[in-house]
Design brief:
The chain is α/β, with parallel strands linked by helices and 423 residues long. The protein starts with 20 loop residues before the first strand and ends in a 9-residue tail after the last helix. Helix 1 crosses helix 16, helix 4 runs parallel beside helix 5 and helix 9 packs across helix 14. The longest helix is centred in the first third of the chain and has 23 residues. Helix content is 42%, strand content 12%.
Length: 423
Amino acid sequence: MEHKSSEGPLSHQLTRVCGVKIYLATIGSRGDNEPFRALAREAAAAGHDVFFAHTSDLPSEPREPYAELSIPGSFEAQIAEHGVSITRALLNYRSTMKPMLEAANQAVITQIQEVSPDVVVYHPKLVTAPVAAHAVGAIAVIVELFPTVTPTREFPALGFPHGLPGRLNRASFRMIQWALSGAAKPARKAAKELGVLRHEPDLTLCPVSQALVPQPADWPSHALVTGAWTSPTVGTIGTELQEFLASGPVVYAGFGSMKDSRAAGRATVIVEAARLLGFKTLLVTGWGGLEPSSAHVDAPDVMVRSTVPHSEVLPQVAVAIHHGGAGTTHAMIASGIPSVIMPFLADQPWWAARLKHLGLGPGAVPRSLTNPNTLKRELVRAIERGDAVRTAAEFMALEDGLGRALGIIEEAEAGVQDLRPAT
């Protein structure tokens, strides 16, 4: 099979190779990007003609079997400058985030028009993608990285507690739909300019494990939970880290793309809590969620890394502390590792509550926590749920989320998968 180069002008990349022409577009942090890259790899390996558009937050990989396209903007730069404070985000929305999203949504329109794909798979923030898809006759597939707007009686939407009556669970999703309706303004504008009547997706895919979110019985046939979209992380951990992991129980701590003003204090309380358990600590600093001290760097029971390959490291730790992003939460469960979630924003509190509801975690712990004894107790509670976590890991090992998602996309293109009825 001959693959297109990811270099050169876009117009030079448009020769169709074989199969379905699929355009994928995402924006956000690593947790927003990695599932799309995994699906791009899966689709390209299956012989489809794949274009993957993303921001600079995801490093380009010239050896990948798909064509890479660039979306302007960087969430990493936004977080580096403003952190994850909701107040600061609201204050700076008009001057920073709004222009970035507008530019990204315009880029998506331009790219879809030039690529003219059969299927468009897109992140919910890219609200113009379904409009541009319909303008070129493509199927529009939205990816809800966790159940975001599709109503169900079985669990609540983001920001609402688990344990509500079914009718209130459904109502919670209607409230989220209403709250997000203002963000659809660029889509309505694009629909008018392109002469398109619909700006809703044709198909909804939710790339989460059914060990954590079984397919809701009341979801329509065009909304499907597929299983997680993951690719094995590539990398080696080195002799020093391998010896550290092998020489006694370790607490893994990492907060991915999160960053705030409490990073130094958070590192301290985590190390102290681990010591109370007699455990060592692996501090993974990521985008700045942890700020180890010089004493931590020099301590024999602490190891500091900026990033590590999850698939290599997690199976070797005893328990983890993390922010509760969808990707990290799945990685922990898939590795059979009990964990404590310190959520920062977005879907992270939802995942903490979800794991508690399923008996897979102790519930959310405030990221401002300063008492190591409190954190020690939560770590013990997480470890006590280890058997349930390992059972969920066994279930997840049997899933093929990428294969299922690609099969659904292929069936949609072939006309045998139900799509959202036109309204």
